[in-house]
Amino acid sequence: MNKVDMSASAVTARLKRVSQLRRLCLSLKKAKLPPEGAAKTTEQRAEASQPAPPKTK
To answer: What is the largest CA-CA distance in the chain?
Structure first.
């Protein structure tokens, strides 16, 4: 069985991580889903955020 670091700094780091995860969970709980047709893939969002390539003449 692995030993768990119970030093003050290690416990503090784990408590901070749990606190961050809790805040994330609570904010996700409050988040609203977009309308059905509005869902975009990560790739579509990346393409939309990039500037258009320069036009050639």
So the answer is: 69
Residue type, 22: R
* Token digits of residue 47: 């393409």
Contacts of 40 (CB under 8 A, 6+ apart): 48
Write out pLDDT tens, residues 15-53: 999 999 999 999 999 998 777 766 567 777 777 777 777
**Rounded to an integer, what distance in angstroms lies between the CA atom of residue 34 and that of residue 44?**
15
Number of CB atoms found within 10 A of residue 42's CB: 7
